[in-house]
Amino acid sequence: MHQYPPRRSRRAMWISAAVAFALLLGGAGFAAWKLEWFSGNGGSVSFGKAPASASAAPDAGKSSPGAPSPSASPSGDPDVALPTGPKSDFKQTAKLDDGTVIAKTRLAGAKSGFEGDVWVWTPKEYGEAKYEKSAFPVLIALPGGNGFPSNYWSDRSLGLQKAITEGVQAGTSLPFIVIMPVLNPDAKYYYDGADIPGQPKMGTWIAEDVPAFTKANFRTYKSRDGWAFMGSSSGAFVGMKTVLQYPDRFKAVIASGGEIVPDSPLWKGHQAEMDANDPEKLAKKLIDANGPEVYINFQVGTKETGKDRMVKFQQQFGKGPVKMTIRDIQNGEHNGWHYVRGMKEGSLEWISKVLKGPQPATG
């Protein structure tokens, strides 16, 4: 049984579809299913193929991004950044029906000093020859609940990666690289994705170390046009807050069932620092500065609470450079399956229209 605890006081339980399916199958059926879904788990994974002009990057068991980027892009697009290295050591954790895999590595954050797990998935297109010189957009997926020691978006039963794959096939989604880091350093507190004084620097982890790790290992865009967040509950808050905090680095967020203001108990005695992580104050600051533009898409199920907070936030701050929409998920509840359904019904198409996609080779 998996716990899906929403942010703070509300609690909800969800049973993994994978486990439920296994219980239904039983016996030999489960053995075959397990063989198909988990074949290769624990094995080393290498994503894509580096362009011929890319500098060879040394292997490293733990990531310590920071090496300089190659000076030239192989595609002629100055916005394309080749992997800087050092390469991380990825181990498969799940296999999808289309042959793509989800893999995990351990990241030692050079800026935050925090060390934690990160899961990664790349679409089939990332390994195709016609895209081998192109960058890909990045979607940093943040979980709700404790967000430690795992990130539930790495569980294939929720269907996030499948939804992207189906969206690509239907022409409604870009082929995103999905990065899934742990959100908190322990299961005791929520850290609001922030550098709370005296606590692990989770704001630096999310905003700097995780993107640096991504740039070290994958072909990405240099500009913010290739960078976005999606998250649910507490992860939705962190994604939205980070986009508003660093609009020069990130352009958009899908925030599902999220909260609006920071409320970790660890902020006590640190009002100024908490204000610096408050989406309401960050949005006002961005409006006063007249940009750059950011895009926020709230998702909320019609069977959950919280829409009133989203509507109020939109009324107050959804203007000028802060572009904001609210998507209702009919009969939706506070869980990942329903948020993925909302993404399939329109939010993936929404975010794909404001980000930059990969460009195939011509000629």
Task: Provide structural commentary.
- There is one protein chain.
- By secondary structure, this protein is of the alpha/beta class.
- 29% of the residues lie in helices and 19% in strands.
- The chain has helices at 17-25, 27-38, 160-170, 202-217, 234-245, 271-275, 279-289, 307-317, 336-354; strands at residues 2-3, 13-14, 44-45, 80-81, 90-95, 101-108, 115-121, 138-142, 177-181, 220-221, 227-232, 252-256, 294-301, 322-329.
- The longest helix has 19 residues, at 336-354.
- The protein starts with a strand and ends in a 9-residue tail after the last helix.
- The termini sit apart by 52 Å
Q: Which parts are unreliable, with pLDDT below 50 for 5 consecutive residues or more?
A: 1-35, 53-71
Mind describing the biggest β-sheet? 10 strands, mixed
Roughly what is the average pLDDT, rounded to an integer?
87
Return Rg in Å. 20 Å
Biggest sheet strand order reads: 3-5-6-7-9-8-11-12-13-14
Number of helices: 9
How does the helix and strand content classify structurally? alpha/beta
* β-strand amount: 15-25%
Q: Which geometry do the CA atoms define?
A: globular
What order do the SSEs take from the amino end to the carboxyl end, as H and E?
EEHHEEEEEEHEHEEHEHHEHEH
Q: Roughly how much helix do the residues carry, as a percent range?
A: 25-40%
DSSP, total strands? 14
